[in-house]
Amino acid sequence: MTMRNYRWCGAIAAALLLAGCGGGAESDGRDGKAVALTKEHVRKTLPDGPAMTGWKESARPTAVETDGLYRAQACPLKDNAGCENSRFYGASTFRRDGKAATVTFVVLAYDSEQAARDAYDVLWDGYYGERAGRKARTFGIGPVGDERDARFGSSGFHGEPGAVTQTRVGTTLLWTLADSPDTNDPGIDEDVVRDLATVLAERARQAQNGNAPSAALDD
How many helices, marked H, and strands, marked E, lie in the chain? Predict the structure, then answer.
């Protein structure tokens, strides 16, 4: 597997920037119950500059409706399997300060918790689980979200590291896609990826509880 399998992350974010983003109604979360997110709340769920201490924003958080173009990006399986009942799609990308590592956060928001649950295995088993290479190892990310998977492997011919996490938080599926072309000082490892996935999941939980997403990396 070559680095191209990771560089699509930046292409997604770039496409979202071209598409722009729109507003949405405030979340109606009550009593900690997960709700279907609006487009605006998908955008706010994505980590931004202030949430990413030690990382520099490469592509700003952007959210769009999951029309045909973005269904093909998020769910590139036959007939876009896994995107059924999805509503909004968002991404943001960062580069680690002083390192070659990059990370792209992806959010896919569904109209119900059941829809997100139904899509989880379809997308992990059919597509995202292979994003870190066929020989990637699984690793634990702790009690993050309602469902979670993570793999760390080699994304290039020379052992360049790459990782993918997939998490379900209520009505959303979330991905953290990280890679680095530097094998000597890559700037990512399991702990780094675990922290990144945790921040994204907590922000999704906050949004579905009706709160402003505020989770951030520690200084």
Answer: 5, 7
Dist CA 24 CA 10 (whole Å):
25
Q: Which two tokens stand for residue 140?
A: 């634990």
C-alpha neighbours within 13 Å on the C-beta side of residue 116: 27
The pLDDT tens digits of the residues spanning 47-103 come to 999 999 999 999 999 999 999 999 999 999 999 999 999 999 999 999 999 999 999
Q: φ and ψ at 10, to 5 degrees?
A: -65, -35
Task: Assign residue 9 a region (left: φ > 0; alpha: ψ between -120 and 50; beta: otherwise).
Answer: alpha
**What number of CA atoms fall less than 13 Å from residue 193's CA on the CB side?**
30
Cβ neighbours, 10 Å, residue 119: 22
Burial of 188 (C-beta count, 10 Å sphere; 0-12/13-18/19+): buried
Tokens linked to 78:
């036959």
Q: And the tokens for 30? A: 């009550």
Half-sphere exposure of 209 (CA within 13 A, CB side): 13
Question: Are the beta carbons of 164 and 177 closer than 8 angstroms?
Answer: yes
